[in-house]
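Progress narrative, work stream C.
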Amino acid sequence: MDRNIHALLAVRQVEITPGQRFADAVSRWAGSLWSVYAHAALFGGWLLFNSGAIRGVRAVDPFPFVGLAMWASVEAIFLSTFVLISQNRSAEVAEARANLDVQINLLAEHEITHLVRQIDAIAAKLEVRIDDAQVEELKRDVDLTEVVQHIQSVNEGNET
């Protein structure tokens, strides 16, 4: 149990670089309503300021607003990069958790198999007859390689 607890804690304490932390913060902010409000205000203000709607204000980026388009494009490039960095890190954490889940499930399967063997031995000692063919199957340890090969075979349509 200690080994599993340490493995779980290790998965939760994945090393996060300052760059990844920054990418996560930018991605969180970009995915919020505040980001939508801020962009609406900035773009709306830019359009209002540069459209000539305000008297006495000379447009810095007149229609067709090339400066705004360039700014938005550069921002989109950086935002998509930050989102991808965050997603890659999330995928790494998810994979580590999935591997831990598999290990825990295999350990549980091994322990259950051991218990089935013990119960079968007790039943034999007490001369309790069990006519269940499934018990013999349950007494076998699961071979992970065999399971993976079977899953791949089913996915490829070779077996149902």
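Work stream C, second folded protein:
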Amino acid sequence: MIRLIITINPDLCDGCGICVSACHEGAIGIVDGKAKLLRDDYCDGLGDCLSACPTNAITFETRDALEFNAAEVKKNLENQKISSQNTNLPCGCPSTNTKTIQHPDEPTSTNVASVPSYLNQ
């Protein structure tokens, strides 16, 4: 099908990723440090990413491309939402990771002298 769709010039792209956030369909991703149109059928051709690109690497072209598939886009966005909920924060700070501290079983003896110390410092 001949239709209007975006094209990304890799020579002008600096890989900032702003277009990825601007694309509400998830059609653009960063591959090898550059923005790339991942799937033709995810691109609706409206160009929300066009004005977001600071280097003007994104333009329109009319070419043979798969027809926009709203059902696949919806499914993909739901999958991305689920996977993003199952990951740690992107900053990588150790304090953002969930930790579980396992203590040995509590002593059953009431004799204070036989209770081992739990201090670990």
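Helices lie at 18-22, 70-85. No further action is required on this item.
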